[in-house]
Description:
This protein is of the alpha+beta class.
Amino acid sequence: MxxxxxxxxxxxxxxxxxxxxxxxxxxxxxxxxxxxxxxxDGIVHMWNDSETVEWASKAWSAASITNMHKQYxxxxxxxxxxxxxxxxxxxxxxxxxxxxxxxxxxxxFTFDNGxxxxxxxxxxxxxxxxxxxxxxxx
Length: 138
């Protein structure tokens, strides 16, 4: 019994990480599909609180996404880089995205309360992200 309890304690962080990874991948796949198909409603409703939905309705309108397609292109692929430990937003997941017009860029996001989308940064950079990119490109 003691061995089983020790084993459970040892694997709990791994289970938490696996759950976060699955949640992050689902969000990225949904965002990429919605962005590439100009599904503004799909992007807007990734948030749950009414203030953010109101803001997102303007920022992620079909016209805005169409303009982003002209400037950056569609997302061709993405790859998880990791968590930006230097960012003030805990758990900021960072992805490298390859775009048809703009080439390689970054995207990052967090979840609030462990389930609702919080911070979302499209085409972003910071000291922490720049370090992650440098290590990724080695």
